[in-house]
Amino acid sequence: MKKILIIEDDQLVANIYSNKFAVDNYQVETAADGEKGLELIPSFNPDVVILDLMLPNVTGVEVLKKIRAMEGRQQLPVIVFSNTFLSNMVQEAWKAGATKCLSKANCTPKQVLEVVRGLSQAATATAAAAQQKAAPAEDKSPDPDTADDAFQSGIVQSFVASLPTTLNSLRTVMQALGKSTDEASRVRNLQDLYKRVHTLTANAGITGMVQIVQMADAVEALLKELYEKPKSITPSTIRTVALSIDFLGMLFDRAKLPEARTAPAQIKANILVVDDEAISRRAVTHALEKAKLPSVSVESPEVALGMLSERVFDLIFLDVDMPGMNGFELCTKLRALHRNKSTPVVFVTSLNDFESRANSTMSGGNDLIAKPFVFMELAVKALVFLLRSRLAAAK
Fold this sequence. Notes:
Elements: E1 3-7, H1 11-23, E2 27-31, H2 34-44, E3 48-52, H3 60-69, E4 78-82, H4 87-96, E5 100-103, H5 109-119, H6 121-134, H7 144-179, H8 183-207, H9 210-228, H10 235-253, H11 259-262, E6 271-274, H12 278-290, E7 296-298, H13 301-310, E8 315-318, H14 327-334, E9 345-349, H15 354-362, E10 367-370, H16 375-394
Parallel strand pairs: 1-2, 1-3, 3-4, 4-5, 6-7, 6-8, 8-9, 9-10
Helix pairs in contact: 2-3, 3-4, 7-8, 7-10, 8-9, 9-10, 9-16, 10-16, 12-16, 13-14
């Protein structure tokens, strides 16, 4: 019997994977943190390790390095789970010796099981042949597809039932964050919010709730960056976190609908970035690339207005302080165009005073991000508006 060690700090997620592998005749052990996982490897002697990179205290990358330093464990298959948006950590995992890197947000238990099977395909085939010779009796095991469907259906029902409680807990922490008066308390609340969203991302990925996964995965990455780099905690980033939590509530309301699990995983969008400064334009497009969102960028407001009169865009990012025509003026003019009169517009500007926020609204803008911005903040903001538009179009 093959042995699998699951190193995962979320007990619910660990139990789901453990049950799935046990049904498929794997012997499974779980560890809630990296230290416990490292202790189990010599005694349990697993054939495969499934490792979450986002572990408390000792990170998954550090655990992986220690595994590879163990005698005789250089070739031990280690499958790591990561956040889609934390590409640097994924690169570190590959360098540390990961056998396979998977996004927890995009993997169901069935898919992970198929990866495990693939890693030990030769051994499994040999064992199966030997078993068939020793016991050629009729196979009375349940049909795999039927068992998978029943297993997945149960997980989905449990997940949907838990969403109201999840939303209440997120909003409670968000309210505490809004009332925080010092950096230490803000960091504590952000860490708490991160842990809850981290769990949400994993559970949504297991159930295949595509849109919840897309949103939660990005918010998780933003929260991690904020509590690790407190200087990035600004009124702008806090507003973006609050916006994302509210939008997750909208997605939770639609979780029972069939399209919650059938929506396309890849968001196809036409995004326009207008900024006369090359560095600023590149910063915005790079942030969008982190969310796998391609964009078109231009420096001239006049050129942008011409494009907006000819093409439909799904989202527009505008600088405010531009020569010839400022962002507020451009926004007012594009609102008069039939093609883009309702396209979401987000201003990206160093002007973050009350008057600027009022002008952004009066000119027809939907939101504002303050420069200098955190890349993940802009990515999260973009996903909120694009997914919200997708929901509106589906009605």
